[in-house]
Amino acid sequence: MRKWKLGVAMMAIAMGVGMADGMALAQGAPQLTLERVFASPSLDGPAPRAVQLSPDGKYLTLLRNRDDDRERYDLWAMDTANGQWRMLIDSKKLGSGAELSEAEKMQRERARIGGTKGIVSYAWAPDARSILVPLDGDLFRARLTGEVDKLPAAAGPKLNAVLSPAGKFASYLQDQNLVIMDLASGTASRVTPDGAGTVHWGEAEFVAQEEMARSTGYWWSPNDAYVAVERFDEAPVGIVTRAAIGAEGTSIVQQRYPKAGTPNALVELYVLDPAGQKRVKVDLGPDRDIYLARVDWAPDGKTLYVQRQNRAQTQLDLLAVDPASGAARVLFSEKAAAKSWINLSYGLKPLDDGSLIWWSERDGHGHLYRWQSGTFTQLTKGPWEVAPDGISVDQQHGRLYFQGNKDDPLERHLYWVDYRKPGGITRLTERGWWNAASMDASGTRAIVSRSNPNQPRQVYLADADGKRIAWVQENAVGGAEHPYHAYLATHRERSFGTIPGPDGTVLHWEMITPKLEPGKRYPVFFQHYGGPHVQTVSRAWGGPLQQYLVQQGYIWFQIDNRGSANRGVAFESAIWHAMGSAEVQDQLAGAAYLKTLPFVDPKRIATYGWSYGGYMTLKMLEAAPGTFAAGVSGAPVTKWELYDTHYTERYMGDPRQVPEAYGASNTLADAAKISDKLLMIHGMSDDNVVLENGTAMYSALQQKKVPFEMMLYPGQTHRVGGPGISEHLWNTILGFLDRALTK
Length: 743
Hints:
- The chain is α+β, with helices and mostly antiparallel strands.
- Among the domains are: 5-40 and 509-740, Rossmann fold, CATH 3.40.50; 46-150, TolB, C-terminal domain (Neuraminidase, 6 Propeller), CATH 2.120.10; 345-472, 6 Propeller (Neuraminidase), CATH 2.120.10.
- The strands form ten sheets. Strands 37-38-40-39-41-42-43-44 form an eight-stranded mixed sheet, sandwiched between helices. Strands 1, 2, 3, 4 and 5 form a five-stranded mixed sheet that branches.
- A hairpin with a 5-residue loop joins strand 25 and strand 26.
């Protein structure tokens, strides 16, 4: 249950009727409307995706959304020598508009880009002369000269198309098999034998995509000599009969969905040659009930590194595999602390000298280590967190680049440390921002994406010392041409603070208020997520919906509870075998704090959450009736036995072994305790938190004679939104809150 972008982008909306009295807006300044918030161009400004440097560093490419259609992306390139931009592929002109396959739709849902149109991915050729672009089931090769040609691949949907590292081959998945095309001859061959039915080659299984942040199931060696390929068989996985209810009919989907405590897909790993003539099975050990977490190649292509995680997610083994024989040996193992689990990372970086960079939480915080000849050297240390991804190495100068929150738990920065002589850490990004960065292969330049509470996302190209070379997307909100510029006069600052939680732990909160009038009390839109692997309070841009809320007279507020991310193992592990406990109590502490503020109306606090946040709404209303005047629960898990294995068992354990933990964590047993006004929302084609979660709670509430309101969205998945739908969703919430919070 990685957090849905909907929950971030749509942050918080309040009532549009009857709450704006006394709001001091700048005279003559335009006010935000829901229609404008969801219209094109986006008020956040352009939102480039998939920013990459060409292998020779001469070009920077990205996917840019269109001014007239914020969901459609085209491929653009910037000449890094002169800063000139040009469109390489216009998705409207080149695309066929063909219907996506179900497999690709599911992949996009897993990647949280379900509503995206046009180009969603691309891959540079190693010689930097062309780019492979999948679009509407076809494969195109775009050259920097402006020429575009279609590769002679068989018709039909294709997944995960890439170019091999040495540039000899293009590869993709079709009909559940891996296909490799020799680019010199244009000949394509299926190199896997039996993909069909429940058997898939080269794909990532459901839980890998949804919960392990692994979107592929095949990996080329650096020299094109081998390709490691996952094979999984879903036959043991239980079938969820899911009614995908649309506007004009219902289709019954037999979805293989591994509920907690039930069998997973059987996963194997093979090493193939590009012709598919030799196939070697990798020895993953005698226990077949494991997770294939990560796969990486050594720089010389002679060793395949495989991360194997046990079903309980309490041990992670790093295997070194001989690609010629498939023989494997365990280099080392990570073991979870008591009453905790192993978090996965993309922190493994094999170096040319045979040593490894490794991310671990073994000292209670996420930090970097160097493994060499059986010995670990700690490279970073302290009560702060290194992000488990975005790690790069400049081996020539011994610099290890990483992102973390060393300077402030509400900020993320790019740093470097000398991995040969670890000591001082150098920060490369400016304080007061939330940054994300990626380096080129040799660690000589960085692409930095940043935002703060008053500035939407900016992207720039920096050198190895963090100095900005050129703007990729300056997106300066102060410029008159920016879509949000006209609304700056009414933009309200965000404030930050802390309170002690019920156990004394420091909890961070953030708040935006209208211009406060003496003696006046204001309603609160209390937003929450609350689940693990997510941090919501940060010095990042929050989006125009928060500001819309404030213009309607609301205070917008949220707080990060124990169980959330980037505060260390002990902080996150508070929910071990006890979801719906510590995090609920911390959120309630936030509500209690609000009620001490003289400008808060304690009788008009509404709480809202989506996905895990929707679950939290229900648990909070059950735990403390009367604390909130109303709650909105979007797409909630209501019974953890209905959610998937890898996510649920990581925190809750196996329901076959700890059924009492599951009983305490569900929302159904205490449904009768809900006495506050409640709105429940669900997409009727949700394949993540399946609709059964909603209907189970509807039934429990009805049996206990608990009144509630409900809105269902035909054809919508876990991401409820899109043209027309987004406005309807939030007008529904507005109308409910208008009724619920009227004095």
